[in-house]
C-alpha cells in the first residue's frame, strides 16, 4: 500500500513553528537555503526529523517532500528515529581509535546494553560512533550533544554516561554548558542560547594544534611536540632542531645520501 501523507502538527505547535521558521527564512536571499536550519528547528520539536517535520519544511519553503527527504537523509546530524536526551558520540577515527576510542565504544555498548545508533530503555542516552571532530590533540574524544569531553578513558566514559542517566550535572571539558539534544537542535537552527554564561563559555585548541599558528606569528615553537610514550625513553635527549620531531626527515631512500632514491643500475640490467 502507498504510504499515507504525513499528518500535520497540532494547530498551536504549527503556529509557533511557523513564526520561528519565518524568522529563519528571512535571513536568506533564497528561501530554500533555509532548509538545513529548518530541519534543526523541527528536530528541536520532537527530537528527530519526522515525516510531519519534513512536510512542514516543504510547505514553508515551497519544496517537494522528496527534496526535503533527500537532504534529511543525507546528513547524519538529522535523526530519523526517536533518540535520547543525550547523544553520546565516541570518535573512532584513526587517532582517537588507536588512543582508546575503539575500546571506549566497545565498552559503552556493553555497559549501556545498546548498539551503534541505539537508545537506552530510559530514553536518556543514544550511543553512536562518530568521525573526526578536529580535536586530535585531546584524543580520545567523546562528545555529548556536540560538546567536548576530552582525554577520555574507558572508566571516565562509563562514569559520564552513568551521570547523564542519573540526571546529574555534567560539565564538558570546554565549551558551553551541556543541554538536552532538543535544546541543542534549536541552537543549531540559529536561535540564541539564552542560558546564563553559555555564550561566554569557550575553549581552545591544544598545544600541538597551535604550533602552526605560533610559527606563523614568528614565535619559537617547542622542539618536541609529541612526548615519548615509552618509559625507557632518554630524558636528557636534546630537543631536535626540526620544529616537529614526529614528521622530521627519516633515513629512507629519499633522504639518506648513502641510499639514494631511484635505480642504481643501468636500464635493462
Features:
269 residues, alpha+beta, 5-stranded mixed β-sheet
Number of strands: 5
Overall radius of gyration: 25 Å
* Mean pLDDT figure: 81
SSE order, one letter for each helix or strand? HHHHEHEEEEHHH
Low-confidence regions = 227-231, 239-257, 259-269
Oligomerization? single chain
> Sheet with the most strands?
5 strands, mixed
Q: Would you tell me the structural class of the helices and strands?
A: alpha+beta
Helical amount: 25-40%
Report strand order across the widest sheet.
Answer: 2-3-1-4-5
Rough outline: globular
- Strand content is 5-15%
| Terminal CA distance | 72 Å
The total of helices stands at: 8
Write a short abstract of this structure.
The protein has 269 residues and is of the alpha+beta class. 36% of the residues lie in helices and 7% in strands. β2 and β3 form a beta hairpin.
Amino acid at each position: 500500500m502507498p504510504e499515507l501523507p504525513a499528518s500535520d502538527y497540532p494547530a498551536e505547535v504549527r503556529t509557533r513553528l511557523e513564526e520561528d521558521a519565518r524568522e529563519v527564512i528571512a535571513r536568506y536571499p533564497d528561501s530554500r537555503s533555509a532548509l538545513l536550519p529548518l530541519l534543526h528547528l523541527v528536530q528541536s520539536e520532537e527530537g528527530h526529523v519526522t515525516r510531519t517535520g519534513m512536510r512542514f519544511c516543504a510547505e514553508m519553503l515551497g519544496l517537494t517532500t522528496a527534496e526535503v527527504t533527500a537532504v534529511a537523509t543525507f546528513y547524519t546530524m538529522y535523526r530519523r528515529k526517536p533518540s535520547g536526551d543525550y547523544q553520546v558520540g565516541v570518535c573512532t577515527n584513526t587517532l582517537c581509535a588507536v588512543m582508546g576510542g575503539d575500546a571506549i565504544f566497545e565498552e559503552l555498548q556493553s555497559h549501556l546494553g545498546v548498539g551503534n545508533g541505539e537508545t537506552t530503555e530510559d530514553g536518556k542516552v543514544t550511543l553512536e560512533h562518530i568521525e573526526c571532530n578536529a580535536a586530535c590533540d585531546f584524543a580520545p574524544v567523546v562528545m555529548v550533544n556536540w560538546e567536548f569531553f576530552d582525554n577520555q578513558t574507558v572508566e571516565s566514559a562509563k562514569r559520564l554516561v552513568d551521570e547523564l542517566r542519573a540526571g546529574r550535572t555534567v560539565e564538558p571539558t570546554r565549551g558551553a554548558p551541556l543541554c538536552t539534544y532538543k535544546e541543542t537542535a534549536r541552537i543549531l537552527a540559529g536561535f540564541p542560547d539564552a542560558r546564563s554564561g553559555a555564550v561566554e563559555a569557550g575553549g581552545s585548541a591544544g598545544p600541538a594544534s597551535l604550533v602552526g599558528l605560533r610559527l606563523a606569528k614568528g614565535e619559537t615553537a617547542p622542539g618536541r611536540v609529541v612526548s615519548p610514550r615509552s618509559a625507557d625513553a632518554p630524558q636528557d635527549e636534546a630537543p631536535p632542531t626540526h620544529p616537529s620531531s614526529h614528521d622530521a626527515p627519516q633515513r629512507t631512500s629519499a633522504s639518506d645520501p648513502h641510499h639514494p632514491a631511484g635505480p642504481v643500475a643501468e636500464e635493462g640490467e
